Amino acid sequence: MSGVWVFEDGIVRRADSDPPSGVGAGGSRPNKVLVHVPSGEVVTSYDVLERRLRELGWERYLYDPCLLQFHQRSTVHLITVPRDFARLKLVHMYDVVVKTRNVFEVRDAAPA
To answer: How many independent structural domains does the chain possess?
Structure first.
């Protein structure tokens, strides 16, 4: 990852003045959404995501207090997302997209 990095008080952070791509004006909410392509439904909660993944044969995997994990018995793939939906980031969305080809897409969020 290119850019300027600063080591300060034992912490390394990126010193860019612009927020990283995928982050909204407030710096905390992504300006991208995960969309279930066949229905056009925006994934707004883990209930929606889990329902759509179950339709594709994905199952909940192990209990972890910090993460939700889904797997398919027919593959070695594992989808891992943070338990708190508010912490879902672009990398998690693309993890879902890559492991469920042609079923989910990441799109720009509609303006508020």
So the answer is: 1
